[in-house]
């Protein structure tokens, strides 16, 4: 199998000592008196998991990458309507991951959720493909003209399209929060080899994910734009079917963690009990005085006491009215909670401020998938002196290419080097990695603004290369000048996006990993909705100014560069907010008062004391 060969090559590149440790330790089993042994297969299960993920992404991205153009050309929607529709769809899709994660952790488990979600995605892609293949399911093609109204979709046509998108929302709601967590489940977290495997898995997972994006944004998008929409959308549907097959073929070797009930019940108990006992005085030496109980079958790691969010500590204060069972558990969990429960809720509360900073950061990524594509539409996309035109949506591939090239370099060269000089497991901390990515995202928007200013200037002052129907003149600026902003976008994702996902998975309690995974996509959802709101505000505000609407259908008559600069300014404010949150943050399992940020003075590390 193709993916087996890929992972074998990767495995051969491992250090001999690490490989021997991996083979020895991954066979370790974990057992309790009442439960069967768990046989962690580690990288042996990856061809099926990564294979499923690759084909699933090839299918989903192969459709969604060019969906903006599809809505504009085949369904005859205006650019601002299509961009808003894409933002709302992406936002709803990403928020849907929270529902999927809750159902996964509470009722179905990751294995069943992934199987159902992949099948739903296939049906959704099939429905969208039919809108292109069957003439009655899309409007008549709009004549190639510069301006004027075109026939839009009927209610029935739009309803069928939305049904397909709805099925894709259901599928993504199950796949996105569970796929990565399901892969992590295959490694033994209690062995050194398992821990190294998990760390490396995050990077290689995104490597193959990005590979799928590159294929979708080149080959599949080209077929859709230049050959046939029916064939171009049929390929992703076929690939999604293959993803279903690959996933179920590996069923016998998967570690299938069962659902343990709603983890949010424990969160609610801590909050309710803390409110009930809010008038109690704080206890001295809470790490000794608070009620301690750890369920014997809990999959969560035991957490030490931390002195943040101390108002929650009152939920674990024992009063004369509280009753305790013979096994040490509270008789009424809605009247008394354990220190372990309190610390798990603190983990959740500590992550939320960091998550809030993700929303503004991801606005940059949203622009690279929407308005940057429109920039390419009104630029010279000819390849050399030939008449071959690169599809506008395919320029996003340079973002993926940047990410694909950088990840192996980072994982195999930069991390080992930093690990030696800094004595940290990942070379740098997760929050430092995220901060670097946010810093690069600001430059991404600044470069995007300067490029757009240059593209517009050439379009207005030099001969153009024709007219895009219903948009405007094509600037003679080569679209290749857009490549630097996409490369910077890829580096941004390599640092911040991967760092954020790793951060959520590692900082959430083990029974909330799927919810932790969904948090990244909820951040993307917030970014999509915030981007739509920003577009609406800019559109309404600038429409009455002397410069006119910044986000006109014809970019040559607007000021998209100003819009990019505003996002860069908001990014600077967001970076400052993130640094404040990072300096205050304590990692899960770290009970001391050491803050995240460090100063380096005269080559020596100086830690900032908590005020």
TrEMBL record:
Q: Where is this region: Disordered?
A: 1-30
Organism name: Gossypium mustelinum (Cotton)
One Pfam family, please name it: PTR2
What residue range is the signal peptide? Answer: none
Principal location class: membrane
Q: How does it sit in the membrane?
A: Multi-pass membrane protein
Under what name is this protein listed?
Answer: BEACH domain-containing protein
**Localization per Swiss-Prot or TrEMBL:** Membrane
Q: What is the lineage of its organism?
A: Eukaryota, Viridiplantae, Streptophyta, Embryophyta, Tracheophyta
Q: Name one GO cellular component term.
A: membrane
For this UniProt record, the keywords arranged alphabetically read as follows: Membrane, Transmembrane, Transmembrane helix
The family assignment reads: Belongs to the major facilitator superfamily. Proton-dependent oligopeptide transporter (POT/PTR) (TC 2.A.17) family.
Locate the compositionally biased regions of type Basic and acidic residues: 8-28
Q: Which domain of life is it from?
A: Eukaryota
| Gene Ontology molecular function, alphabetical | transmembrane transporter activity
